[in-house]
Specification:
Layout: H1 3-25, H2 29-44, H3 50-62, H4 67-110, H5 116-140, H6 144-159, H7 165-181, H8 198-222, H9 225-238, H10 244-255, H11 263-273, H12 283-315, H13 319-323, H14 326-355, H15 359-373, H16 379-393
């Protein structure tokens, strides 16, 4: 074994071990994950400097998909190439995937959808999404123009609930942002380099768009359940701006109306996903396992995260050009504002309408929200409190 091979092998093992530790301990959602990454990769390991990390985060916020997972993939790529990115993803994601698949199999075996603690987990989802709305609205809609874009997205998403509504809202909001903010100035002149060629990047982007077009065609032509499952999760992972909470309405509309799983099982899993560390997109593992066992869980995970991989690897070589373009920045500002409106629509339906049924439900949601936001308790404590409280409320 040559010295270079030994160094590469050591780097691969190091990436896998560190990312797995992060995957076991990173509670709190995507913003918290970015904080964990900064502490580990920038401050402790010094794999990249502050500027490079900020640039990588900016790139992943620009792309649809799970931002924290994409940052982890990007750091792995910068450290040890494409294989390093894959190992960083596996370490960060696998712990929560395993936990949620196990939870789904227990749900199937015991038929506990109507249990009181399940309703408590649904109330947890109310508190968590409300917290996400407050934080994102403050950051992404600071002025009247972006508040108006968010309002448009909210009204459009609620009143026209079709498969194409969210995509259309995002496109129109991007156009509005482009027109309003096309002269937005950026003073950042730093540079960021990745060991990925433009040719490889073009191949990844081609595959991303190719699958987006080809999978629905195959779904209609073959009527195979596994292709339909892969298509639904791949499309959801491809069209989500704003992270895991925004994927909720896409996944809910893909599977609940079609009868693939009940709304109770869907929201119970969403509540359980708050209890595990790692990316919220691993909620797909729970859904896949509910519908098709552990094999479905693994397939759903691969399908929903594949767009994130292809987009990160596809855009890395071109990021220097894109990130300094004020017109691109303006379109992104409009899209981010629309995310807030889409999130509020998801908060109302299906979360609020199927969960807050009595005054006591609202009171308990307010308590959980306060524990999360003001008392700053860990998410796993909120989830445990929600489950216990739901069980107690069912006895009243």
């Amino acid at each position: 074994m040559t010295n270079k091979t030994k160094r590469d092998f050591k780097s691969f093992i190091e990436i896998l071990l560190i990312s797995t530790r992060l995957g076991l301990t990173s509670f709190g959602g995507p913003i918290a994950h970015l904080g964990y990454f900064h502490e580990e990769y920038v401050r402790r390991k010094k794999w990249l400097d502050e500027k490079s990390y900020a640039d990588l985060v900016a790139l992943c916020q620009f792309l649809p998909g799970p931002a924290s997972s994409q940052v982890g993939i990007g750091i792995g790529v910068m450290r040890a190439g494409v294989l390093g990115g894959i190992l960083a993803f596996i370490g960060f994601t696998l712990p929560s995937v395993i936990a949620l698949i196990i939870f789904a199999l227990i749900m199937q075996g015991l038929d506990i959808e109507d249990a009181g603690w399940i309703h408590g987990l649904k109330i947890v989802a109310v508190a968590v999404v409300a917290h996400a709305i407050v934080g994102m609205a403050q950051k992404l809609t600071p002025d009247l123009q972006r508040k108006s874009i968010a309002l448009f997205a909210l009204v459009g998403t609620l009143l026209w609930q079709t498969a194409f509504t969210q995509v259309g809202v995002i496109l129109l909001s991007g156009l509005a942002g482009f027109l309003i903010y096309k002269h937005h100035k950026e003073n950042d002149k730093s540079k960021l380099f990745f060991p990925v060629s433009r040719k490889f990047g073009i191949a990844c982007l081609s595959l991303f768009f190719g699958l987006l077009v080809l999978l629905p065609i195959l779904r209609e032509a073959t009527s195979l359940h596994w292709i339909a499952l892969f298509d639904s999760f791949y499309r959801s992972g491809s069209l989500v701006f704003g992270g895991g909470h925004v994927v909720l309405p896409l996944l809910e509309r893909e599977f609940v109306p079609a009868g693939w799983l009940s709304e109770e099982a869907f929201l119970a899993g969403y509540g359980a996903a708050q209890a595990v560390p790692g990316p919220l997109f691993t909620f797909a593992a729970y859904l896949g396992a509910i519908m098709n066992g552990w094999q479905g869980g693994l397939l759903a995970t691969a399908a929903i995260f594949l767009p994130a991989f292809l987009l990160v690897l596809g855009t890395l070589p071109f990021w220097e050009i894109l990130r300094h373009n004020p017109k691109i920045k303006g379109a992104l500002m409009g899209v981010n504002a629309a995310v807030v409106g889409i999130l509020i629509a998801a908060f109302y339906h299906p979360i609020w309408t199927s969960t807050i049924l009595e005054p006591i439900d609202f009171a308990f949601a307010a308590v959980l929200f306060s524990l999360l936001v003001y008392w700053k308790l860990s998410p796993w404590i909120i989830v445990l409190t929600g489950a216990i409280g739901g069980a107690l409320l069912s006895l009243l």
